[in-house]
Design a protein that fits this description.
single chain, 335 residues, Rossmann fold, seven-stranded parallel sheet, 11 helices, binds nicotinamide-adenine-dinucleotide
């Protein structure tokens, strides 16, 4: 694999880890990120500082909405692969600031599609979310399930970007894979996510907010498993010409376009996840039980067998081990 890889959201949690792994393999990576202040910019800078130590890494600070700058940096770098991970994430904030989501996730992704078409990219991988399954009640979620009932504006913008990408793939033959992530956690994680906030509050002796009395589960997926799945997928661009037929494939009948789940495929109840944090932090946690959060999905569980068939994806990290690694990083980073 000698590809030049362009990663949007490279100072973000998943983008940073993906870029670092590719650089470790000796590949050339260009990162693009606005470094916005949705959460602690120092953390984004610290991730970026690690990447800039690699001679094969270059970076442009910019917004996806800045089409001129985005196009200029992509034309100059001339990647064969684009991994589009920049997005306005978070369910709760999308209630407060829906426009940020409209701009970053829909307009921003549209700008990526246009330039990907222009440079005839070999594979465009777009980060999406398990939240597009919304109110679905059939578990585990499969890529071929209907996704018509999003519960948050965030999820609606991710689903819209998927649809827009399909139309572009069909019109212009752009090979696109949509990757739906399931609750990604781990070192260098996102401070707006529950496990990060829990850790911070527990260490400060504060109560943690537990929604729906903890009666919900998530398919928590460790970052290293996610990165290994993304990297395995790079060379597996969907194609309409291939005669290989895969059982239960989600490939479009009209475009080189496929949707794939990427999860740990295990049901972890919120209270078990918290218990594991309690053990790792050696502290008794004080909980404040609250009703279900507006916009939040009840539970998530992925069927990731398609990604396994296509790219040999094989998530290995048990949540107890993953939490231990996260806590070790957290204690070291914030010491
Ligand atoms: N982490 C998860 O559990 C999870 C779950 C489902 C989906 N996702 C998706 O995965 C992708 C990466 O998420 P993450 O967890 O790394 O989030 P993150 O917030 O850590 O990273 C996103 C990065 O994109 C940048 N960004 C945001 N809007 C931008 C814009 N308009 N222009 C340029 N840069 C912009 C941010 O500065 C940030 O560094 C996103 O598409 C997200 O929706 C993540």
């Amino acid at each position: 694999m000698k590809s030049k890889i362009y990663i949007t959201g490279s100072s973000g949690f998943i983008g940073f880890h993906t870029a670092k792994k590719l650089l470790d393999k000796g590949l050339k990576v260009h990162g693009y990120d606005s470094m916005n202040n949705y959460y602690d910019v120092k953390l984004k800078k610290a991730r970026l500082n690690i990447l800039t130590k690699y001679k094969n890494f270059s970076f442009t600070k910019g917004m996806l909405e800045n089409k001129k700058l985005l196009n200029k940096s992509i034309l100059k770098f001339s990647p064969s692969i684009i991994i589009h991970l920049a997005a306005q994430a978070g369910v709760r904030y999308s209630i407060e600031k829906p426009e940020e989501y409209l701009n970053s996730n829909i307009l921003g992704s549209f700008n990526i599609l246009n330039i990907a078409h222009k440079i005839k990219v070999k594979h465009l991988i777009i980060g999406s979310s398990s939240s597009v399954y919304g109110a679905n009640k059939k578990f585990p979620f499969k890529e071929t399930d209907k996704t018509d009932h999003q519960l948050s504006f965030y999820a609606a913008t991710k689903k819209s970007a998927e649809s827009i990408a399909h139309s572009y793939s069909s019109l212009w033959g752009i090979p696109i894979t949509i990757l739906r992530f399931f609750t990604v956690y781990g070192p260098w994680g996102r401070p707006d996510m529950a496990y990060f906030k829990f850790t911070k509050n527990i260490l400060n002796g504060k109560k943690i907010d537990v929604y729906n009395k903890g009666k919900m589960y998530r398919d928590y997926t460790y970052i290293d498993d996610i990165v290994s799945g993304i990297i395995k997928l790079i060379s597996k661009a969907p194609s309409l010409n291939k005669k290989i037929s895969i059982k239960n494939d989600s490939i479009s009948p009209a475009a080189p376009f496929r949707i794939l789940n990427i999860g740990n495929t295990k049901k972890i109840y919120l209270l078990d996840f918290i218990k594991s944090l309690e053990i790792e932090l050696k502290k008794k946690i004080k909980k404040k039980y609250l009703p279900m959060q507006k916009g939040d999905v009840h539970s998530t569980l992925s069927d990731s067998s398609l990604l396994k068939k296509i790219a040999g994806y094989n998530p290995k990290t048990d949540y107890n081990i993953g939490i231990k690694k996260f806590v070790n990083w957290y204690m070291d980073y914030y010491k």
